[in-house]
Amino acid sequence: MITGGSRGIGRAICLKLASMDYAVLINYSTNVESAIETQKLITDTGGMAELLPFDVSDPKSVDAALEQWCSNHPEEYISVLVNNAGIRRDALMIFMQNEQWTDVINTDLNSFFYVTRRLLKDMLIHRYGRIINIGSLSGLRGLGGQTNYSAAKAAMIGATKALAQEVASRKVTVNVVAPGFISTNMTKDLDEKNLQETVPMKRFGKPEEVAALVGFLASDDAAYITGEVISINGGLS
Ligand code: NAP
User: Fold this and answer.
1) CA-CA distances (angstroms) from residue 86 to 37, 135, 136, 200?
2) Domain 8-232 -> CATH class
3) Of 2, 6, 9, 195, which is best to mutate to test ligand 1, by the most ligand atoms within 8 angstroms of its C-beta?
4) By the number of CB atoms within 10 A of the CB, which of 5, 64, 88, 120 ranks highest?
5) Helical H runs in 179-222?
6) 28 lines ligand 1 (CB under 6 A)
7) CA-to-CA distance for 150 and 148, rounded, in angstroms?
8) Which of 29, 8, 39 is nearest to 188 (CA)?
9) 115 contact partners, CB below 8 Å, separation of at least 6
């Protein structure tokens, strides 16, 4: 399952995991058209994909959707979880409103707790699981105008490292992928031409490049990697 799989990095991850023969659950919030497009891109090439809409920031919505899915699929479990859904609500802290702070913390951090705790039990019972959290360079070094976002992404790193220790003996790995600037809707309001000059590789990354790293972490080749933060940022640090 990929949260926020309708667009951007999440869509690329859905396509990557489908190409690795996973049946993909595409979560999204409101953008049903984009989610259907992601599903079609997978099914047109012979893959399996199901839509699973819910609001990751709302524990009731998460619980209702996942309980329903589990009762409809009693013989299956979700073995790979990519916590990707996220938003930005940038403002200098002196101007930041309560909603800008809480919306980002709820969507980018609390969602990790709401979704992961629901799926963890089955991973532990089956003694196999992959949890891949999409962090950000902003959570590693902090970025002005993003105290909310940097806080959420940094806290996710702490939670990842703690959870990795709790579940390692059951062959469940938990890691963070921390992208720099990636060309998606989330970054379309930024001045790409100027910002890319700050990147040693002089360009923004592509969603497919992030998806390739997530695919590796989901694979058996990454079985001994857990509790790690892996950056993908063209050399920007
Ligand atoms: P994006 O293009 O804006 O897509 C955001 C995705 O998250 C959409 O699928 C959206 O669903 C979903 N989403 C948002 N709020 C949700 C909610 N409450 N419940 C369920 N789904 C929700 O963003 P992106 O650039 O691909 O970013 C994906 C992740 O990468 C985020 O965690 C972001 O913080 C991280 N990241 C991005 C960059 C970058 O440069 N782009 C850099 C570092 C980290 P709908 O389509 O239904 O709205």
Assistant:
1) 19, 9, 10, 26
2) alpha beta
3) 9
4) 5
5) 192-195, 207-218
6) yes
7) 6
8) 8
9) 3, 56, 62, 66, 81, 83
* CA distance linking residue 171 with residue 98, whole number of Å: 39
**Active-site residue, selected from the candidate residues 22, 28, 114, 149:** 149
Q: How many CB atoms lie within 10 A of CB 197?
A: 10
Pocket test for ligand 1, best of 14, 29, 52, 63 (most atoms within 8 A of CB): 29
pLDDT band with cut points at 50, 70 and 90 for residue 194: very high
Domain ranges of the chain: 8-232
Tokens of 15: 């396509």
Contact 178, 136 (CB under 8 A): yes
Enumerate the β-bridge partners of residue 176. 133, 229
Known active-site residue 149: yes
Residue-wise pLDDT for 73-94, tens only, equals 999 999 999 999 999 999 999 9
> What does the chain come to in residues?
237
